[in-house]
Write a sequence for this structure.
């Protein structure tokens, strides 16, 4: 049975958490944007980690038969965008994330908590 878009977003967030991403945030954009239902935003400590996060998310989601429509930014690995249709994953290095402050564009979007404790990811409001 295919995952719904919220489950896809949370799965991507869990993979990022397992790969030691920092500042993981899931935004629910339903009704706020036609771009996607969910954004997953996270950071890596280096371009190497940013790229590794993207590769691991793609690998783990593909095992669940979830494939990206497009991936941008792999070459410079400062901001990688993974388009899964209703879910878009943004992986930044810290400097690029601080510069663009993408989450500030969506202040009205409900946030799904992503805690360091994987057992409670996505259970809040």
């Amino acid at each position: 049975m295919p995952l719904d878009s919220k489950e896809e977003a949370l799965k991507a967030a869990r993979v990022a958490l397992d790969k030691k991403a920092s500042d993981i945030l899931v935004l629910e954009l339903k009704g706020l944007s036609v771009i996607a239902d969910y954004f997953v935003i996270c950071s890596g400590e280096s371009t190497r980690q940013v790229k590794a996060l993207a590769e691991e998310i793609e690998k783990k989601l593909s095992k669940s038969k979830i494939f990206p429509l497009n991936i941008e930014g792999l070459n410079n690995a400062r901001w990688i965008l993974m388009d899964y249709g209703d879910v878009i994953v943004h992986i930044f290095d810290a400097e690029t994330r601080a510069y663009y402050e993408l989450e500030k564009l969506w202040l009205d979007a409900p946030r799904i908590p992503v805690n360091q404790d994987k057992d409670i990811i996505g259970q809040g409001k």
Remarks:
- DSSP finds three helices and six strands in the chain.
- The chain has a mean pLDDT of 91.
